[in-house]
């Protein structure tokens, strides 16, 4: 069974560290960020993968 995590505030310091930690542990990570954080993705930019890869384990969604 694959483990999945949902992290709110993924672009914040704690959310970004938690996402990286869980990805290293093999989790599928879904993150939520506010629209006002759309330009502030420096902490999670390295976690993004090629969207054409079928094995993606990191997903980030913006909420309004």
From TrEMBL:
InterPro entries: GDP_Man_deHydtase, NAD(P)-bd_dom, NAD(P)-bd_dom_sf. Its EC number is 4.2.1.47. GO terms for molecular function: GDP-mannose 4,6-dehydratase activity. Its cofactor is NADP(+). Residues 6-57 form the NAD(P)-binding domain. Pfam families: GDP_Man_Dehyd. GO terms for biological process: 'de novo' GDP-L-fucose biosynthetic process. Keywords: Lyase. Belongs to the NAD(P)-dependent epimerase/dehydratase family. GDP-mannose 4,6-dehydratase subfamily. This is GDP-mannose 4,6-dehydratase. It comes from marine metagenome. The lineage of its organism: unclassified sequences, metagenomes, ecological metagenomes.
């Amino acid at each position: 069974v694959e483990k999945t995590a949902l992290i709110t505030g993924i672009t914040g310091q704690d959310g970004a560290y938690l996402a990286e930690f869980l990805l290293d542990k093999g989790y599928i990570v879904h993150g939520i960020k506010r629209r006002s954080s759309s330009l502030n993705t420096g902490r999670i930019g390295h976690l993004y993968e090629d969207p054409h890869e079928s094995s993606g384990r990191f997903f980030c969604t913006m909420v309004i």
